Hints:
By secondary structure, this protein is an alpha/beta fold.
Amino acid sequence: MAAGNGRRRRNDLxxxxxxxxxxxxxxxxxxxxxxxxxxxxxxxxxxxxxxxxLLDVACGGGLLAPHVPAGYAHVGxxxxxxxxxxxxxxxxxxxxxxxxxxxxxxxxxxxxxxGEILEHVADVEAVVAEIARVTAADGTVIVDTIADTVWARxxxxxxxxxxxxxxxxxxxxxELFVDPGRLRRxxxxxxxxxTLHGLRPAPLAYVRFVLTRRGSVPMRRTANLSGLYxxxxxxxxxxxxxxxxxx
Length: 247
């Protein structure tokens, strides 16, 4: 952790500048983000014939890039210029922009991934609306975030910030954590029915990481949505859903 990071207020974007050279340190302060990025791979559909477009909202240093299937043009949006510089070095087209005001036309992207961003924004519904707006009809939305629960606060803030592989200190403001029901409703308002599942590190691999500070940790699916959770959905016309069409 950079010396300045511990003095930042919670959820301060400047801490990512403090840690700008650590994005690709796979055993460093962003280790868990590497594990979560790998878990997103199985949710991304193959690129359509002729190629497709994928938007990575809050792409950070571009950690999703190694897991994006061939055939996608990978565009990354972030508010941190130092992170975008790292992302551009791994083949991501960088765009400096706010997740709540995406600078793209409606229906631009075949896939939109919003990983570890919704627990950092004050207006979740506004960001969800933008994600839905830029997703093409029949396009896929993939999200992961942190539940608004006592367990999440304990495991990912009180304890997690003190453990190897946990979030960098003061990375999260638990007041911004997102209830799964709220997230489902927000996406449903835009024709996207999310299927949610929990994520947890594989226990033995994580113990090994804690002891050695080395090695990747697979993220396992769980039915428990009280901590870290992920979701995937397809954008359907609201009129079809209202008429009883399959979401």
